[in-house]
Structure formats: structure tokens, C-alpha cells
Amino acid sequence: TAPFSGLNDIDIYTLVPKLQLAVGNTPVANYSFDFGNLIVGNQLDSQLAVSNEGDYELLFTPDADKINVTGDTGDFTIDLSSLQATDTLDPAQILRLPIHFHPTSAGGKSITLQVLSNDPAAPTYSFTLQGNGTIANATENSLASSQTVSIYPVPCSAMLQIKINTSFQQASLQLSDLNGKLIHESYDLTSFTQLSTVTIPNGIYLLNVQTDDNRFQSKVVVTH
User: Fold this and answer.
1) Facing residues of 44 across strands?
2) What is the pLDDT along the chain (224 residues), one digit of tens a residue?
3) Reading across the β-sheet that carries 124-134, which strands appear in turn?
4) Do 176 and 182 meet the contact criterion of CB atoms below 8 Å apart?
5) DSSP string spanning 134-151?
């Protein structure tokens, strides 16, 4: 498979003798990562980090393709140039490969990546990246049939804007990472709220907005 060039860091850790996929510093179960829903024509940016956390050199296959990529390659882009130029990772060394999800049509998208190395437990380490292309307003998600919330910009670098477009009595929000750790919470929201993301590390987070008896949830991408 020829390399194709260029959702928040995606990390692969080599734990002797084990490889493990993670998002940022959070391990991902079942060898997969889901970018979630994304409006067709938009793009989510992340990094695929390949690191050696063992105590011995990690040797990649001498073949030209150290990573094989199959699936919906037109909807994902990975810059493999730094990996293709590397034969060995010393302990604690990390390679970061830019990766982008940009659905070209509606529906589920996925690619399977196989990392080939001298890891005796997983000489061919496979995992899946997936996402879903949608056709909708990129900044609006329905709370319920009569309740709508707008969030922008997406992705966000400094300030997330949250607008509740209909009347309500009480509203609150929670921002958490994909492992469930609470990052921020606010109560007594007004119809327009600003949330600073300056001190929040790059990554993908879950935003929950609760208004009266309705709840809105969306993934938020922070990139500086």
C-alpha cells in the first residue's frame, strides 16, 4: 500500500512486548477510535503517535510499508513520511503522524491500519479509525424536537461559544474527556455562554448541556 499524505492526539504505545492505542494519554479499548459525527466537507485534525515505551529498540519491518492502510482512504489522510524514513524507535522515542478525518459523503467511514514491527506479541498490530459523515448544519444539534443548541467554532482553539436558541428555566454544562474525566462544569447558564479552552490540552472532548428536562451532547475538538 503506497503512503497517502496529509482526531487531540492518537497514541500507540509499545509496552514490552505490547502495543496499545490511546487518544492523547487515554488508552482506547478494542483497538479502535471513533471520530464521531462530522458534517460532510468539514475536517477533524489529530495525530497518530507511534512510541516505544519498552526497554529495547523497536524495529519496523524493512519493507517499504511499515503501516498498511485499507478501507475508506478517501475520507482519511495520514502523513506517513516520518515513519517511512524511520527503521528504529529507541526507548521513549515518539513519532507523530498528522491524521485528518474529512468525510466526502454521508454514512459510516473507516480505515484499518496495520503497524509492522519486531514486537513478538504483536508483529502485525491492527486497529481501526472510524467516523460518520452527516448532512446537517455544522454548528447546530437538536436537544429535542423543540430545543436547539449551537456550538462554534468547530474545531475550537481559544473560546467555545454555546448558544441555547429557545427559552428554558435552568441550564448547566459539563465538558469531559473521552475517559469520563470532568474538565469543566458551569451552572446557571444564560442563552449565550463562552467557555475558554486556552488551558485545555489539544484533544477531543464530550460537551453535555442540560436544560430543564432535555440534554444535548456533542464532541468538541480543541486544537491550539
Assistant:
1) 101
2) 444 444 455 555 544 545 555 555 555 566 777 777 777 777 777 777 777 777 788 788 776 567 888 999 999 998 888 877 888 888 878 777 788 888 888 888 999 988 888 877 778 888 888 888 876 543 444 333 334 788 888 788 888 888 887 788 888 999 988 878 899 999 888 888 888 888 898 888 888 888 877 788 888 888 87
3) 32-39, 124-134, 107-116, 67-71
4) yes
5) E-S-TTEEEEETTEEEEE
